[in-house]
Amino acid sequence: MRAMIGYLLTLLTLSCFYILVLKVGEEWNNVKPVSAVLEGKIKMNDIHLQQNSYIYDRNNELISEHINEQKRKYISLKEIPDIVKQIFIVTEDSHFYEHSGFDIAGVTRAAIVNAKSGALEQGGSTITQQLARNLFLNHEKTLNRKLSELLYAYQLEKKLTKDEILELYLNAIYFQNGIYGIETAAQYYFSRPLKQLSLGELAFICAIPNNPSLYDPLTHFTETKKRQERILQILFNKGIINKETFDAARSEQISLRLQKPVDLFPDYVTYVYHELKQLISLKEGISGEQLDKRASEVLQSGVRIYTSLEPRIQQKAIAAVQTYLPYKNVQGAAVVIDHTTDEIIALTGGKHYKKFDFHRAFQAYRQPGSAIKPLLVYGPYIDRFGATSYSLVSAKAFCKNGYCPKNYSNRTYGMVTLETALQYSYNTPAVRLLDEIGIEQAFAYLKKFEFNSLTTKDYALPAAIGGFTKGMTPLELTNAYTTFAHDGMFQKAHAIRKVTDLQGNVLYEWPQHTKKVWSKKTNDIMRKMLAQVVKEGTAKKAYFPSPYIGGKTGTTNDYKDLWFIGLTNVYTAGVWVGQDKPTNIELISKQTPHLHIWKTIMQSKK
Best label site of 150, 173, 226, 331, fewest CB within 10 Å? Predict the structure, then answer.
């Protein structure tokens, strides 16, 4: 009875196929224009399968894989073992090297084999048709789709060699669980590259594409193993393997060892994706939705992104933020820049940060408090008027046009040196100096640091002590302070060193561009003053022995933000502490967590 049903199915399948061929003949005049369109529009050189992209640290160690909708690691045909090619040809398309895209005899043979076995042992579509379906079409079982499949297969055979078609096919086919391509399947199911698998393991994964849901090794291991044994039997029957090899492969114990994708350092990797868009935008002059689409295309094409990440310091920064901020709802961010190379080597997005969450290092715009004084007030004043650290300024009460700032604890100090005023972060001297420089002149210096959120509303005296409409991000402020390590020159720091394709060709690199902010003489004076802040002033809890150490604290009104930006001879680092919804954290400020975080990170040796 079973055999009778099989032969009836065979007859029905053959009848349908011949009707299909007749239909193609009847519609040939209509098909010609479609073929002509395909001839012009299907550029086989432009056929690109989606591939994974990879992000590396400064030591070229993989830290994250970008997995597209189709998880795939593409390999060339010469990298694929011959036995794998033979398996797919004998089980899917035995006349592959003879037909021109479709095989009537193959359909007949597949129908007979399937009828005899009572199972779907062989498919009716050729390898070329299956490739056409994967590249250009869907898996609908309709006459129109089948006609299109034949046309696309015909075009593929005209444009590509048989080996090129086979290579694309073996990289395109689906292996269930989001896995595409034979190499990806080997690494996912066995955690080893294809070339290291045994014959039994190769035949096992080659069993999956025939019916990925039925032969899913994770849910139907037994069914997959049965098909593997049938594949091995076919290889033996055709004389491709001998009896000893057949017996050994069939009896081999198959043990799955699933490989999870690498996805480390979410704080840093999240920023790398952001910077990649900036890099593409700069090179290609695009923005908005067009930029989003282009960035997606780049990642789907398969690229390698080489970064400046220093894993040891990144881990130390994350641990320091966690350790010194145990308070509920209190967040923090840290940025570390190697100013000898202008590279971002570490940055944290917040406590317990998850990939692609709101990132406080580069997305949180906060009032900078007194941390802005060296950039907006003291540096410009010394540069413009030739002042020194010993030049005097009044720390008495100040009031102009209704604006009357106060020093900490409402105290006044009379005449003090610039060094003392900065060292103890007096407010009235800073406002006086800004008034003397002139707001427009002072902001001309500040604009060189490329703060994204500056507006004309910020051009006012309160800016001298951190009063801005939006403020700055920890990354922006930290980057600005690298100027003190560069003799007064500003260079924008980056996380990405270069982006290449999978063959190593460079696609994107940041251009080098420096700006002179102030003179070397001014910079030398500022470095001396910043050193005093750490040795004797408001940041002395951050001090440790170093060839150079200096920086500036910042506290905003009502203790809503705590800052410290400082530098050594090698690194410039910035730390911000606060709540996402600005709230008074005066009690926490007494513990100076921002200084402890900074010191912990910066005591790392290069």
Answer: 226
